[in-house]
TrEMBL record:
<dbReference type="InterPro" id="IPR015943">
    <property type="entry name" value="WD40/YVTN_repeat-like_dom_sf"/>
</dbReference>
<dbReference type="InterPro" id="IPR019405">
    <property type="entry name" value="Lactonase_7-beta_prop"/>
</dbReference>
<protein>
    <submittedName>
        <fullName>6-phosphogluconolactonase</fullName>
    </submittedName>
</protein>
<comment type="similarity">
    <text>Belongs to the cycloisomerase 2 family.</text>
</comment>
<dbReference type="InterPro" id="IPR011048">
    <property type="entry name" value="Haem_d1_sf"/>
</dbReference>
<dbReference type="InterPro" id="IPR050282">
    <property type="entry name" value="Cycloisomerase_2"/>
</dbReference>
<dbReference type="GO" id="GO:0017057">
    <property type="term" value="F:6-phosphogluconolactonase activity"/>
</dbReference>
<dbReference type="Pfam" id="PF10282">
    <property type="entry name" value="Lactonase"/>
</dbReference>
Length: 359
């Protein structure tokens, strides 16, 4: 029998509510069930695991918090939890300030020696060295952004929305929704040396949010939250990007408000998936694997409201979507010919789920 896959789900929650849920998934049968629930962290809006699965990292997306002495501190926190190898239970958390409000995304270098955190309302990115025992050390690098965009309500200031390291770990890509830019930083030869390297502009008002690399390493795809588009880039080496084109995530017939949230590429490199909040769907977009060109092929309802996040299983056969405003996590089987997610008949009730992390 196939071993159960481990899934961690983060949620918007107070410290007195469930912020992180551990779930197990049996891909042979399509069964999915909760195994543990944890509080003590506020608004665990994005999660990462280290490679060996011994530590869970999370951002606490707040604009202020109470420190151990009870004093109120401005900003959010980076949390990390040891995971017991046998029971898979979380141990006590360790917390670091992010020195900026509403941290909403984090990434580890492939070599797992650095973790980066984006402060959405703090106009900054913080970088923490990873200690030998896998805990983050105190932050030692801060990148500050300046600028704005044409959308007065959403782009009045910089809003670093996500951080992604290149596959070789030499470059950090920061998608800034407020500036309509991808800010690129590069690693230097010294231990704590990272510096500004390049900037790539998106269309005015696009609002870049997240990106996904193609498994070939030749392309990457940027999801634009405000314009509801996906922009493809060639990955030209030395951290450089070449813009190829953009396609919409919405059907032409849709009328109403919508923002995009998450993007993923199928492990076989044939499809891009993107979530629509408003249309409440997953867009399926075919990839030309020779040119990186994109072709929208359809949409599937997430069977809930506001799909902020979703993830694919490593084999590309299943998709799990988190519907923030209908409090449900929904399991889809991926049709291996068409790439379309098909509702499996299974869902879990989880309050305000906003991140799905599949080990």
């Amino acid at each position: 029998m196939t071993k159960a896959q481990e899934i961690w789900i983060g949620a918007y929650a107070s410290k007195n509510e469930v912020g992180i849920t551990r779930v197990e998934f049996l891909p042979e049968t399509g069964e999915i069930f909760k195994t543990a629930e944890y509080g003590s962290i506020e608004n665990a809006s994005f999660l990462r695991l280290n490679r060996e699965g011994s530590r869970l990292y999370a951002v606490s997306e707040t604009d202020k918090y109470a420190d151990p002495d009870g004093d109120v501190v401005e900003g959010g926190q980076l949390a990390s939890f040891p995971i017991d190898a046998e029971t898979r239970k979380l141990g006590p958390g360790q917390y670091h300030p992010t020195h900026g409000a509403h941290p909403c995304h984090l990434s580890l270098t492939p070599s797992e020696d650095w973790i980066a955190v984006s402060n959405y309302s703090g106009a900054s990115v913080m970088m923490y060295p990873i200690l030998p025992d896998t805990r983050p050390g105190p932050p030692v690098i801060r990148f500050r952004h300046t600028g704005s965009g044409p959308n007065a309500s959403r782009q009045e200031a910089p809003h670093p929305h996500s951080v992604f390291f290149s596959p070789d770990g030499q470059y950090l890509y920061v998608l800034d929704l407020g500036m309509d830019k991808i800010m690129i930083y590069t690693r230097g030869p010294e231990a704590n040396e990272w510096s500004a390297y390049d900037a790539v502009s998106l269309d005015a008002g696009a609002g870049p949010r997240h990106l996904a690399f193609h498994p070939s390493g030749k392309f990457l795809f940027v999801l634009n939250e405000l314009s509801c588009t996906v922009t493809s880039f060639s990955y030209e080496g030395a951290g450089k990007l070449g813009r190829l084109g953009s396609v919409p995530t919405l059907p032409s017939s849709f009328v109403g408000d919508n923002t995009c949230a998450e993007i993923a590429v199928s492990p076989d490199g044939r499809f891009v998936y993107a979530s629509n909040r408003g249309h409440d769907s997953i867009a399926i977009i075919a990839i030309d694997q020779q040119t990186g060109g994109l072709q929208p092929t359809g949409h599937v309802s997430t069977r809930g409201k506001t799909p902020r996040n979703f993830s694919l299983t490593p084999d590309g056969r299943w998709l799990i979507a988190a519907n923030q405003d209908s409090n449900n996590v929904v399991l889809f089987r991926i049709d291996q010919q068409t790439g379309f997610p098909v509702f499996s008949g299974t869902e879990l009730s989880i309050n305000k789920p906003v991140c799905v992390l599949i080990k």
